[in-house]
Design a protein that fits this description.
This is DUF5319 domain-containing protein. The protein is mainly alpha-helical. Helix 1 packs across helix 3.
């Protein structure tokens, strides 16, 4: 099983992207320790969001692209693969918008974070009560 989508043109001489510039040729600075920690925290948060939101029909997250100013819809596995790629290579993947996604099945990072915080707060309130306190 692969964490990342398999390139259907890998090794194919008729690869339509074969003539494009390989971003691997550019020398980029590796992720700083802070950036690396941020990505690791995003991966951990993603696991929580998926566990909480999948049962209510959420398929992934929507992210407003800074480059094209369009919303990009990522299912859980694709987003996880993109974050792992960023950790290993130090650069984001080339992206393109999903084909005909249903926006009703995607939420923003902020919504997912707020939902997870709400669940956490609700569970914490129940554990703060002392037995027999009548609360």
């Amino acid at each position: 099983m692969h964490d990342e989508p398999i390139d259907p043109f890998n090794g194919d001489p008729a690869d339509p992207a074969a003539g494009l510039h390989d971003p691997g040729d550019e020398s980029l600075d590796p992720l700083s320790d802070v950036e690396r920690q941020d990505v690791l925290e995003d991966l951990a948060d993603l696991e929580i969001y998926q566990a909480l939101l999948t049962p209510i029909g959420v398929r992934g997250l929507v992210i407003e692209c800074e480059d094209c100013r369009e919303p990009h819809y990522f299912d859980w596995d694709l987003l996880r693969g993109n974050l792992r790629h960023l950790l290993s290579s130090g650069r984001p993947r080339v992206h393109e918008p999903a084909y005909d996604p249903d926006p009703d099945h995607y939420v923003s990072w902020d919504y997912a974070r707020g939902y997870a915080d709400g669940v956490h707060d609700t569970l914490s309130e129940g554990s703060d009560e002392e037995p027999g306190s009548g609360r």
